[in-house]
Amino acid sequence: MKHNFSAGPAILPQEVFRQAAEAAVNFNNSGLSILEISHRSKDFVAVAEEAEQLVREIGGFGDEWAVLFLSGGASTQFFMAPMNFLKDGEKAAYLDTGAWSSKAVKEAKKFGEIEVVASSKDKNYSYIPKGFDIPADAAYLHTTSNNTIYGTQIKDFPNTDIPMICDMSSDMFSRPIDVNKYVMIYAGAQKNIGPAGVTLVIVKKDWLERAGRDMPTMLNYKTHVDKESMFNTPPVFPIYVLMLTLRWLKGQGGLKGIQQHNEAKAKMLYDELDRNTCFTGTAAKEDRSLMNACFLPTKEEYTEPFLKACQENGISGIKGHRSVGGFRASIYNAMQMESIETLVRVMQEFEKEHA
Ligand SMILES: *Cc1c(COP(=O)(O)O)cnc(C)c1O
Q: Distance between CA 339 and CA 318 in Å, rounded?
């Protein structure tokens, strides 16, 4: 058995892989592949509708929200959000908690004045800044809920009346969401809710009226809302796999159920990290991510033999991002406890042999 700790594209439930493989050959017993039918066919429209329904049901998004399935990745949302929602002369506030946040800042600067309200760059993004001021005249506050590269996660979102836009790419649907805090949430699917190729965008319908700028049709959210994500050919197969993943998630007890599972997995791994003398966690304890656990070897010479021990035990994708080094265990929704147990056992055996 393989234990896939990849940060993204990442693990999905095995049953989802099997169902997706079947649909690629024979979709709904039609004798046709899902890859060769019209996105406007009855069978695919039913998939898109179920996907949207599951997003609404699982996340608690009512009729005041539009649910979109777009392409271009979360990286496209970095510029599309300010392009649509930052009017000429307006200012937006951004919280800088990592590489993805700073990319969002860089793109937003092309559309208005951006105030970075706080940054944890001073300590290589190892913590979440707290207690900062948000300018009262900001059109919105942009945050990144989980910092995939650095293994930090926002536990308490700022208490503010300023509408929030959140990049939830790497912890989307891993825990309950207080939807009232946001006007827009977006997530590239490939970290936690599906395969690469589709980006989930959930936006308050009344906010769409803000889009005053003259912009290309494809980049206007209103285009996709009016055409229910079918203005052009949507990423049909990624949407199908996302729908299967959300069906699975619903079966896990939705966000409350998956949160319990995720907390138990993270606890087991972090407890071992805190105990084991060969490794040390890089993120501030109170900000540790339930999705990505980043850790360093306490001696540089442990790196290669540990990677080798992982490989021998079927553990893959554990190498840390180049900007942090060491190791990163991504433990998204679909990761089973058994894989965490395997990693913990390998860490313990490693300590016995090397420390
Ligand atoms: C991976 C990631 C992105 C980039 O997503 P793409 O879909 O590759 O554009 C953005 N934000 C966060 C938090 C991520 O983890």
A: 12
User: What is the residue with the minimal CA distance to atom 13 of ligand 1?
Assistant: 169
DSSP 235: -
Instruction: Considering the chain, tell me which residue range(s) the CATH 3.90.1150.10 domain(s) occupy.
Output: 3-10+253-354
Please measure the distance between the N-terminal and C-terminal CA atoms of the chain and give it in whole angstroms: 28
Q: Pairing mode, if any, of strands 292-297 and 279-281?
A: antiparallel
Element (H, E) at 58: helix 42-59
Q: Which 8-state DSSP code applies to residue 125?
A: T
234 lines ligand 1 (CB under 6 A): no
- pLDDT tens-digit profile of 223-243? 999 999 999 999 999 999 999
In the chain, residues under CATH classification 3.40.640.10 are: 14-251
Checking if the pLDDT of 51 tops 90, the result is yes
Query: Class of 3-10+253-354 per CATH?
Result: alpha beta
CATH architecture assignment, domain 14-251: 3-Layer(aba) Sandwich (3.40)
Model pTM score:
0.98
User: What angle in degrees, to the nearest 10, is found between the helix axes of 236-251 and 42-59?
Assistant: 40
Q: What is the pLDDT of residues 53-73, one digit of tens each?
A: 999 999 999 999 999 999 999
Residue minimizing CA distance to atom 5 of ligand 1: 74
| 288 C-alpha to ligand 1 centroid (Å) | 19
Residue 211 scores a pLDDT above 90: no
